[in-house]
Amino acid sequence: MNLVDFNVSSISQGGNEILSDVQFSLPPGKSIGVIGPSGVGKSTILRVIAGFHNEYQGECKVEGIHVSPENEKKVRGKLSFLFQRSPLMEDMTLLENLELALLFVKIPKEEKKESIYEVLDRLKLSHAMRQYPDQLSGGMRRRAVLAAAILRRPKILLCDEPFTGQDPVTKDDLVQLFSLIREEYGFSMILVSHDVRETLQLCDETILLMDGKLQAKGDKEALMSGASDRARRFMELGSYV
Amino acid sequence: MFDFLINIFVGMGRFIRFIMSIMSSVVSPYLWVWQTVVQINMIGVGSLFLICIASIFIGLVFTFQMYMILNKFSGLSQLSSVVAFGIFRELSPVVTGLLIAGRVGSTVAAELSQLRQSEQVDSLLMWGISPYAYLMLPRFLAGIVCLPVLVLVFDAISIYSSWAYAVLLKGMENQIFWNPLLDGNVFFEQDVLYGLYKSMFFGGLIISVALFQGFYVKRGVSGMAQSSTKAVVYASLGILAMDYLLSQLLY
Amino acid sequence: MKKSHIVDFSVGAFFILAIAAFFFLATVTGRTANSGSEGYELSARFEDVSGLANNSVVRLSGVIIGQVEDISVLHDTYSAMVRFRIDDPGLKIPDDSTIGVYTEGILGAKYLAIIPGFSEEYVKPGQEILRTKSAVVLENLFSKILLLIGTEK
């Protein structure tokens, strides 16, 4: 069974249609990239899957469960969201934030502690766990957000532009660390980004969205051949930065 | 015009549903108990200084005014009870409410819209934590608890500053100042407690309006600015209107 | 000190302050008796009770012993019927006592004052005090004075 089946004929926001006819599915262990220019509605796809956005027609299933307000809790239990901004509470230390993330996971306290320390260790954040989010540097902050996202060992990770806004070196470090973590934790993911290179590098299959619809699907060649002129230009400019 | 009316009704309905959601989240106390204490610290303790200063000046200016008027009618023996009556029943809850609407209402609205815009609310939802229980209820409860406390402090300090004006500055007899209060012109159960009841409503109103405006914030910085402005304006107008209704009801 | 300790400390101090303010206000202001639960009710009829109101106090030798509960007009004699409560059930009022409406200072609040008599019989709860003195209405007093001045000339 596919982890995510996304079969939506139209997504709208505030009454205006922003995307139409988007279909894809995420098999276990795979990763899908969603690329396209800013404002095309890439993030909205993730928000539909997580049940935050209800203005759409069609169906969206997570492990065979329909995403709807009644199933919200069940669906969200399987997912984790790697947010574009920082979802960490500013008035709590990193450690307290991670404890909050595990509040509703029914495992003994010792195990919680252990898994927090393990994740912090893996992401090289152990020294910063008693610091507040605003004391962390940009790269550390991104790692902290990643820690909060993978802490619950989700099957599916929804990543919303996780590396945007970092300098090239930090970004490269983050991408490498991210691939390592992914191998180790073995989650499937949907990565939303406008960075073509990074997406092609990290994902098995990529979807190109542009001008309100799905332009092409597949690997790099498929994307280049199947797309309109404007989309091809986007790909070319994006690939050789 | 018709749309405008419909919008008001829809907004009111959403607001009431919002308050209901907040109240119904009482069922998970481990989420809100400690946060409520933290919020009491923010809302109540944080406003104490402001309330102290305001109450000193309100006490002084109101006593000055009443002193002038009562002096004309040679009724100075009733000075303290007139001052206390006005302050305990009306001035203290309303002024405290307006000041807190300015200080706390705007902060809470900005906080909530910030949490909302930087996806913290979504992140709580992903972790299975209700933002109603974790973010809203603590602030709401803290507002209801803190306002009466601040009003009590306001009452006590303003009556002392009134005493300072009359006795220290104007040379009134100490006993003549205190006696009318005790002698059954101002009643603790009525005048002081009515002020406290009122202020509880004001506290709930200020915080719920601010939370509502913050939670349904529009995108962008201008959305945040709008929501905190609206929080203060609506809460202030609400306090004045509610004060009239409650005064009629409680007198 | 840990952050949570600081929060606990300041919130604790906040509420202690609140309790202090509560007791301060409770001691400097007057008290309404918890009506209905204790004490007993008496009544008296007056020609004029101008200025008297519900919750006006009742004094005996200057001490507050109760308050007015209800003021109404009698349909037959048009005099004012005042029901008032004595808070202390053990305090017995002789049945030849006089009750009057007095003013605190010239413009102060009106109150009822009981001047105890010498009888061995006491007014029973619900009964009426028969000897009454009406309120002194300033306007009436002035007009009387003016009249006096007028006749002397």
Describe the structure.
The complex is a heterotrimer of chains A (241), B (251) and C (153). With 241 residues, chain A is of the alpha/beta class. Chain A has one domain: Rossmann fold. Chain A has helices at residues 42-49, 72-78, 94-101, 109-122, 138-150, 168-185, 196-202, 220-226, 229-239; strands spanning 4-13, 16-26, 31-35, 56-62, 65-66, 79-82, 156-160, 188-193, 205-210, 213-218. Chain A has a six-stranded mixed sheet with strand order 6-7-8-3-9-10, sandwiched between helices. Chain A has a four-stranded antiparallel sheet with strand order 2-1-4-5, covered by helices on one side. In chain A, helix 5 runs parallel beside helix 6 (168-185). Chain A is globular and about 50 Å long. Chain A starts with a strand and ends with a helix. The relative contact order of chain A is 0.18. With 251 residues, chain B is mainly α. Chain B has one domain. Chain B has eight helices and no strands. With 153 residues, chain C is of the alpha/beta class. Chain C has two domains: 1-30; 40-143, no CATH class. In chain C, 27% of the residues lie in helices and 30% in strands. Chain C has helices at 3-28, 138-152; strands spanning 40-46, 57-60, 63-73, 80-86, 98-103, 110-115, 128-129, 131-133. Chain C has an eight-stranded mixed sheet with strand order 7-1-4-3-2-6-5-8, with no helix packed on it. The longest helix of chain C is centred in the N-terminal third of the chain and has 26 residues, at 3-28. Chain C is elongated and about 85 Å long. The N and C termini of chain C lie far apart (88 Å). The mean pLDDT of chain C is 82. Chains B and C meet through helix 2, helix 5, helix 6 and helix 7 of B and helix 1 of C.
